[in-house]
Amino acid sequence: MDPAFWKARWESQQIGFHQSGPNEYLTRHAARLTGGLEARVLVPLCGKSLDMTYLEGLGNHVVGVEVVEQAVFAFFADHRLAPKREALGKVERFSAGGVEILRGDIFDVTRAALGPVTAVFDRAALIALPGAVRAKYAPHLVSLLDAGARILLVALTYDESRMKGPPFCVPEAEVHQLFAKSCAIELLEESEGIDKPENERFRTRGARSILEQVFLLTVR
Length: 220
Ligand SMILES: C[S@@+](CC[C@H](N)C(=O)[O-])C[C@H]1O[C@@H](n2cnc3c(N)ncnc32)[C@H](O)[C@@H]1O
Hints:
- This protein has one domain (3-219): 3-Layer(aba) Sandwich (Rossmann fold).
- Helix content is 30%, strand content 27%.
- It has helices spanning 3-11, 24-34, 51-57, 69-78, 111-114, 131-143, 172-179, 200-204; strands at residues 40-44, 61-66, 84-88, 91-96, 99-103, 119-123, 150-157, 183-192, 211-219.
- The protein has a nine-stranded mixed sheet with strand order 3-4-5-2-1-6-7-9-8, sandwiched between helices.
- Helix 6 links the parallel strand 6 (119-123) and strand 7.
- The radius of gyration is 16 Å and the shape is globular.
- The two termini are 30 Å apart.
- The mean pLDDT is 96.
- S-adenosylmethionine binds at residues 6, 17-18, 45-47, 49, 65-68, 71, 105-106, 123-125, 128.
């Protein structure tokens, strides 16, 4: 899934992943993610997600990362904001109020561009990437963080013979394979999500079961 794939998805508005409100797992676990403190929170592969405005509303400073410019423009336009735009090495920073979005490839984001973050909300980011890219993404993400930083991760498991990604199937064993060396891993909750209204697109694609698992990772 290269940037051209995602650019085409945004151009044709095939953005079924976009949710009309903040993610339910984020609203349930935001306090665990930030420790109840006002934090700098990274939202990788952010799209125009309302998770960013939700986190900002809790007093956090949010840094999204998104490769498709149209998505970045859409986020600020939806909130009637005129962002400041500046070049920052290989990425560009768009900022307004408590939200900034780094427009560029997540793999081009450096600690210097990102600044210090103590929390990450990963919804539809890890699972948007194919297996070989996930194996690069996990260590890259952790390399941007200091010990003690937390990652709230939403992962999905489904029968891959019935549906092809993205989103890709990332079972608990893979979460451990990717993060166990660098992070303590806690499974916060899991539930069957196939009947949820927002998962209708997966039912249409043939899925019969989608196990949603929410992990809290703490960087060692
Ligand atoms: C499945 S969507 C999820 C968006 C958002 N997290 C949400 O919950 O609505 C994945 C997003 O990541 C962006 N993306 C894909 N690959 C990327 C990369 N390598 N670097 C930055 N953004 C990327 C896509 O353009 C798309 O908007």
